[in-house]
Amino acid sequence: MKTTFIFIPSWTCQLRCSYCDYATKKRGDGRELTAFGKKIKIGPEIQWPVWLYLLNRFRPYHVDLTGGEPLRYDGLEDFMAHLPVWSTWGITSNTLGNVEGFKAVNNDGWTASYHYHSDKKFFENLRILDKGGFNVRVTLVLTPENTDKVSMAIEKINKLRAGVNIHPILKQGFDWGKHSQIWDEFKAMDDGKRILFISDIPTVFADLEWPRPQACHAGMDYFILFPDGIVYRCYTMILRGKPLGHIKEVVPYKEPQPCKIRCQFPCDLQVPKEPM
Ligand code: SF4
Ligand code: SF4
Prior knowledge:
By secondary structure, the chain is an alpha/beta fold.
């Protein structure tokens, strides 16, 4: 069985997107994270050789890098190149940093979030990743105001091998019903493969039975990992729970655990039946 770490190697980011739910500022030798009114102190980032040592007892594992902006982490390309055999990695990144040192070995996908900030650098990087054999998907956030930009980006991406995920913006108080023509136009582009229109939480997850029919495997073979080694059971627990502890000492649950939080994460539907 492979343990999955949703891994935030760094909470820093060079952008300040208006819709970003997370903000951090320097505090002492670490940072302070503010998210949905909650403040969390984070210690200094752990260096990559130490991460390899700390993760060793979980091998084989999968690290799914996210942020902040993971390319801001010093030595990320070396870290990924030294993952142990059978371990894998994926990344979600604004893809504006330096991508030249990365090798596609053991990479199961590169999600490049397009932010309209630096078209030139972004597409230069996509070409490098394309050449390097990465399986790239570009996520584009669609709003009624940026339809031209999204269309132009899709045209450019179509010249590469990368796929496209169109995410219509979902935020409180905003109603796509008033912009149904735009919604329909972009939804019609979904070909089920190259271009996907990610409209909402799939019904299968939204309609989960309550109370939950199954316990959740977060904390057993699925964790959120902070830059200072602090481990959470899942994303929701960052805001609504407590950490499980430090990666040095965390003892994974032996079996899926019940959870009282009514979240719509799909992990309770993915309890592995057989060791992989
Ligand atoms: S690139 Fe991502 S992490 Fe950075 S500010 Fe934008 S949404 Fe937030
Ligand atoms: S049920 Fe949801 S909130 Fe509870 S541990 Fe699982 S993912 Fe986290």
